[in-house]
Design a protein that fits this description.
Largest sheet: 4 strands, mixed
Strand content: 5-15%
Low-confidence stretches: 215-220
Radius of gyration: 22 Å
CATH superfamily of the largest domain: Butyryl-CoA Dehydrogenase, subunit A, domain 3
Order of helices and strands: HHHHHEEEEEEEEHHEEHHHH
Distance between the termini: 34 Å
Number of strands: 10
Strand order of the largest sheet: 1-4-5-8
CATH architecture of the largest domain: Up-down Bundle
Oligomer: single chain
Length: 409
Amino acid sequence: MDFEVNYTGEQQRFRSEVRSWLEANVPPAISRRPTTDEESAANYRLRRELGRKLGAKGWLYPLAPKEYGGGGMDVDHAIVLEEEADRFELSLPPYYNSGGTLGAPTILVWGTEEQRRTLLPPIYRGEVRVWQLLSEPEAGSDLAGVRMRATRDGDEYVLNGQKVFIGSDNGTDWMWTLAATDPNGERHKNLSWFMVDARLPGITVQPMDLLGAGESSARSGQKNTIFFEDVRVPASRLVGGENNGWRVASTHLELEHGGGGHIGRNRFWHALLDYCRNTTRDGRPLVEDPDVRDTLADIYIKAQVGRLFGLRNFWLTYAKQPKSYEGPQLSLYMKLAGLWMTGAILQSIGPEALTSDPRWGSEDHFLEAQQRNGIVLMHPGGTADIQKVSMARRIGIGRATRESAGKVS
């Protein structure tokens, strides 16, 4: 079965240009997995510097409009850029930045022209990093239930409240969030969307100890609790109008729920295959065990299906083709496949998959991390049940009118 796509001669020419540039500009140390906070901070600095270089070429956000600092490229060239970055174990951007992947498209759709020209260039050029602040202690998958308050006071809004499961490590420059501007108003018509400077007085960031973070936040995805105490945000940072935040959020939720797709190999698969080739049981490599081989084949097939779903959604979105259920379909598939994989790996490899002990576990603890994250990732970006509900609404189950996919561009 052929899992590959075909490329034009122009795409292949562009691929050679991109590959040469990346080989000359990506520091070898950038792919090393940090094991201490100091190494994490150093790796983050390398990634931000690479991001600024990519931004100067228009390659950090290749599909974003050129007039706002993006690359202004078509989807065919963007696919090549994403694939070549993936060869270096990188994504675009090469660091966590939901402000660029989710927030910037939202501003592009819902912001004023002044907001686009003020807020988008620093993101697209890699000058700032931005976190999303959505979930709260009592509002996660039920995002419309957020309670953080935003009260108008002259030319400012005063924000008070708490957000959880936010960001990563090494801090952020800006934050975007949903807050209730009419706490007693009708549900879905009482929220507003803000871009906030992370340096404003009254913002406190507190790291969280979570299952997905592992033994050291430097080795995996740290999350944070963020407190707002009388944080004064300029009214010019309100995007999409007061009490219109739920409609504004439909854009980034469409992308977060799989509508934007993704490009690249399944890196875990290659690491798993190498582990099974180089690890022995009863004097034979694991890969020679028939049951292990069957499981590896199933994992490969599921990974390729997920890759093709991701490529399809990427193309549909950025080639501006009609969409319906495809975003939540991808999200649901990836969640369920990841959870299945967690059980299949444990059954095939045994308890070694559960330990970070270097005498028994995998190099860089990638198996132990997968055993945690296969469970953890059932929740972020909407649970599996949320994806099912979204799919049902979009294909017209139980409703006279089908729900439309969120507007992306």
